[in-house]
Design goal:
By secondary structure, the protein is mainly α. The protein has helices at residues 2-21, 32-38, 52-55, 64-76, 98-128, 132-158, 165-171, 179-206, 219-238, 248-267, 271-277, 281-296, 309-327, 334-355; strands at 47-49, 174-176, 302-304, 359-361. It has two domains: 2-304, Ribonucleotide Reductase, subunit A; 308-358. A two-stranded parallel sheet has the order 1-2. The chain has a two-stranded antiparallel sheet with strand order 3-4.
Length: 374
């Protein structure tokens, strides 16, 4: 049975690759959408690798009861048929607003890169780690992320573009993270992904006239997958108290700030998208921060005070500096280089000031698992 499951997961993981290969030109050139996904920009999602040997020693016995309940949920695979559904869509709907189309495509490309990054990471861990608990969890999560990436590629295909996932896997630059950094960053990525999707879904549920693309109808079940993946990393971290204490609190603080600030700056670069939703982008971001902060209390010993005026001013400062840097894109020469360096230093100093703001202590609850109740 395990071998059969592994074969099915591997088959699903190649569906999106096979579908998009046809969109590469006959001479092997990479299409523009794939090239966009390959670009190593500071705010773009990355591909990761880690120390697989270190993950062999994860012992989930301290959280065994909750772990086994979680794994039974993964085995039920409630979303088995969800992403196989199709829909009709007229791509000309976006042609009347080129800016919206550009920002929507940027959202889809960023999303498929993030989803497929998770798929590849989980596949590699499953392939290189013999620890049965970890290997099985990674197999199920790779299955889910493969479905998500393939579904986004269907949406891109209907818009006349798609990402060649095979090229993305081979050519994308990989960043090495220690296992604990993978836990912190990926946990937050999955949970903030849930918070983003559910906030958009609930808003469009109240305002269906703003749902300019049918992909948003899939967000509820989709974000529940993200929530479940975060539960896996929460239990891994809770199984080892050292990951959540001492010097590691500083790393937790760092990743919380990095994820929040990156999201804020990236979202504010897509004003037409949130205007089309009928949402205020700043209000949206802080709603997502509130949900993510509440969820993260299940595992992290501290939270950020995102209501602090100094925090909000700092994020706005980082946004303004990024806008100034973007305005210099393509410019060369010593003056442009000095300006870029100045903006980069300014961003670093602003991040440092934000990092030094007081945090809020959190008493971690005895029960780890949560339900996606938002």
């Amino acid at each position: 049975m395990p071998g059969e499951i592994a074969r099915k997961v591997a088959k699903m993981a190649t569906l999106g690759e096979n579908m998009s290969e046809a969109l590469a030109s006959s001479d092997g050139a990479v299409n523009l959408t794939t090239q966009q996904a390959l670009e190593a920009q500071p705010l773009a999602p990355r591909f990761y690798c880690t120390d697989y040997a270190a993950m062999e020693h994860i012992d989930i016995e301290p959280v065994r009861a909750e772990w086994d309940l979680m794994m039974r949920d993964f085995e039920l695979d409630k979303n088995r048929g969800h992403f196989k559904q199709n829909y009709e869509y007229d791509p000309s709907i976006l042609e009347s607003d080129p800016e919206l189309k550009e920002e929507f495509l940027d959202l889809l490309v960023s999303s498929i890169t993030a989803e497929y990054s998770g798929c590849v990471l989980y596949q590699e861990i499953e392939k290189n780690v013999s620890n049965p608990d970890i290997s099985k969890l990674m197999r199920y999560m790779a299955r889910d992320e493969s479905r998500h990436a393939g579904f986004i590629n269907k949406a891109l295909n209907k818009l006349g573009v798609a990402v060649d996932l095979g090229v993305l896997k081979r050519e994308k630059e990989y960043t090495f993270f220690k296992p604990k950094y993978i836990y912190y960053a990926t946990y937050l990525s999955e949970k903030i992904g849930y918070a983003r999707y559910i906030t958009i879904y609930r808003h469009l549920e109240r305002h269906p006239e703003k749902r300019f693309h049918p992909i948003f109808k899939w967000f509820l079940e989709w974000c529940n997958d993200e929530f479940a993946h975060g539960e896996g990393f929460a239990l891994i971290m809770r199984s080892d108290p050292k990951l959540l204490s001492g010097f590691n609190k500083l790393w937790i603080r760092f990743f919380l700030l990095a994820v929040y600030s990156t999201m804020y700056v990236r979202d504010h670069s897509r004003p037409k998208l949130y205007e089309a939703f009928g949402m205020d982008v700043t209000e949206f971001d802080y709603t997502v921060f509130d949900i993510t902060t509440e969820i993260s209390r299940q595992v992290f010993p501290l939270t950020l005070n995102t209501d602090d005026p100094r925090f909000r001013a700092g994020l706005e400062r980082m946004r303004a500096l990024q806008v100034a840097r973007d305005a210099l894109e393509g410019q060369r020469g010593p003056v442009a280089m000095l300006k870029k360096l100045g903006y980069l230093v300014g961003s670093g100093l602003t991040f440092a000031r934000l990092y030094l703001l007081p945090t809020q202590a959190n008493t971690i609850p005895d029960q780890v698992r949560m339900q996606p109740a938002w």
